[in-house]
Task: inverse folding
């Protein structure tokens, strides 16, 4: 009997925003896997830390941050091989994922490599999008409104077109793209409705009108713009 | 001291996909509020049922389903007044919300009425979008991909334009709009990539290629289309 792979969403950062299912799987795990970026601390592991059983085996995927994709993909090859060895030995493996595994999550690269050979269960998690909205007190979408989710690194012309054509908007991965995003949003006349959220639900969370956002934004930051023309909201 | 209002996301339906925070708040609640649609059973209450303390006071908002908005808004006025009375009496109120409170949730109408007078905490939940993706085994978005979320009741011309311009897509509230959506998606040549998901994470869940979806779809159904051109996925 081979083991089962779980891709477990941990939510946006506050440990009690993981699901009951995620907590139960982590507490019962004998093998845990998680990514680290370029040798740094694992954010995913830090969310789950209090629940990881003493003595659990830990498979660390150290993913290099390069513009070229091949080095990161080699790290996923290597990690998938180590996870496969545990699964082949009959052990279940719980892979820790920030947010939701299928929403900008690196677990997708493990899923692509392992889902045909092994049983995989993906446990969805609270995404940063609704966590930021909750913390900022901004209802996102009602009734027949549309929601557009855009990554901040997109080119300026594309961002301009997409933001202009959207209703409610969440712009992720703001980081060093903040000045460009602020320019685009300002030119479109949306600055009054734009809110900047950094590290939502964590102790060092920041929520500010975009116009007052700091110059240096971390990777885990977001801009929310809501339609806001429903007279009942 | 007035009480605090909690808008608690319960996730997509499986009770263990609510967050640890949601479960703790429900287990400790003395007053619970939730909506029902036109006198039907409350889906939100059914998700939380096993955790609601015996003897908790229950405030039921019976929301009529009419095309006109005024009758539903009168029900929110009435519900908000009853919740306000409990808060004024110093009791905390836990309002149960399917999915996430700020993502197409009726809690937004209570938030609009009560957030200026009372302390409100919104607890985000797992949305149906990532729950459907998890169950269907469909990674949603990676890297710099965009995600568009559209409600199925939008007019056909707008759906056609929005779907054509999107990368990954989640179309919610499919229900009786299924034939129209199937036509649009077929004409755009996207049928092979479109998956139909009904009641994700519940025992009567259905997952099918859109081409094989049933004629009669329930309100809680979704169509997912993913970009799917990343060679590493």
Result:
């Amino acid at each position: 009997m081979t083991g089962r792979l779980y891709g477990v969403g941990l939510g946006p950062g506050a440990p009690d925003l993981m699901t009951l299912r995620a907590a139960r799987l982590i507490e019962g795990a004998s093998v845990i896997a998680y990514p680290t970026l370029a040798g740094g601390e694992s954010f995913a592991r830090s969310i789950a830390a209090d629940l990881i059983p003493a003595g659990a085996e830990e498979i660390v995927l150290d993913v290099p941050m390069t513009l070229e994709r091949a080095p990161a993909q080699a790290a996923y090859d290597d990690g998938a091989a180590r996870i496969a060895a545990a699964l082949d030995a009959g052990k279940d493996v719980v892979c820790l994922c920030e947010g939701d595994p299928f929403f900008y999550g690196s677990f997708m690269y493990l899923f692509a490599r392992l889902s045909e050979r092994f049983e995989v269960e993906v446990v969805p998690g609270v995404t940063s999008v609704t966590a930021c909205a909750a913390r900022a007190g901004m209802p996102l979408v009602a009734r027949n409104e549309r929601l557009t989710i855009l990554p901040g690194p997109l080119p300026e012309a594309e961002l301009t077109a997409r933001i202009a054509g959207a209703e409610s908007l969440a712009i992720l991965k703001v980081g060093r793209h903040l000045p460009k995003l602020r320019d685009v949003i300002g030119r479109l006349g949306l600055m009054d409705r734009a809110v900047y959220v950094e590290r939502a639900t964590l102790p060092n969370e920041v929520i500010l009108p975009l116009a007052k956002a700091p110059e240096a934004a971390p990777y885990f930051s977001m801009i929310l713009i809501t339609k806001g023309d429903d007279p009942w909201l």
